[in-house]
Amino acid sequence: MLVVVRAWLPDRPGALGQVASRIGAVRGDVLGIEILEAGGGRVIDELVVSIDDPGLVDLLISEVGAVDGVSVEHVRPIEGDRLDPDLIALAVGAELAEAEPADRPAVLCTGAARVSDASWSVVMRDAGVLEQFGEPPDLPWVQAFLDGSQHLDSVSSVDQSVPSDLVWAHLVRSGISVAAGRSDRPVHERERLRVALLGRLADALID
Predict the structure, then answer these.
(1) 136: Cβ–Cβ under 8 A, 6 or more apart, which residues?
(2) Fewer CB in a 10 Å sphere around the end CB: N or C, the chain?
(3) Count of CB atoms situated within 10 Å of the CB of 61
(4) Distance CA 206, CA 195 (A)
(5) Residue 66's beta-bridge partner residues?
(6) Where does 2-78 sit in CATH, by number?
(7) How confident is the model at residue 162 (pLDDT cuts 50, 70, 90)?
(8) Concatenated DSSP letters for 186-197?
(9) According to the model, what pLDDT value does residue 107 have?
(10) Which CATH architecture best describes the domain 85-205?
(11) Helix (H, G, I), strand (E, B), or coil: what is residue 35?
């Protein structure tokens, strides 16, 4: 089975190697690594791990967390092959470019959810919902947040007033805003950056 392990590591030489060694100790195989965020002497890594025995997942978590300075933020199983998140973003960009103009807001909506692995997303313009995916929270709250977030940095996680479960982008030229969210784990800078770049691309394509 495949599991995704998201962990905070000290930003020091050898820390990732120690984590990989602990994973190997329970017969796990690291298939992929993505750095989601770095700063303040800490790094948030997401590791895709193949492990033969599902019964060893709890031991895997314990072993990783036993490395000095490491804390496990989230672990989740995944079905089938996990596509590289950057390839998903490229695929969504291609779909946006190839879509009929009238269909692009819908592609943006589902695409924002795909690139951020969100459970819901919404595309809004002038306080109206253009497209919706999943079950967003209270839509008036989402609209109020988008209206009040024009001054916020949608990528940086430094601002503590930014919700950790929400990612968004404002498309200035087209007057559209897109938001997406999930409740099971925080959103980090690399995931926010993907949505911001997707928004820039969509803004050049949507009228």
Answers:
(1) 120, 121, 122, 142, 179, 181
(2) C
(3) 16
(4) 16
(5) none
(6) 3.30.70.260
(7) confident
(8) ---HHHHHHHHH
(9) 97
(10) 2-Layer Sandwich (3.30)
(11) strand
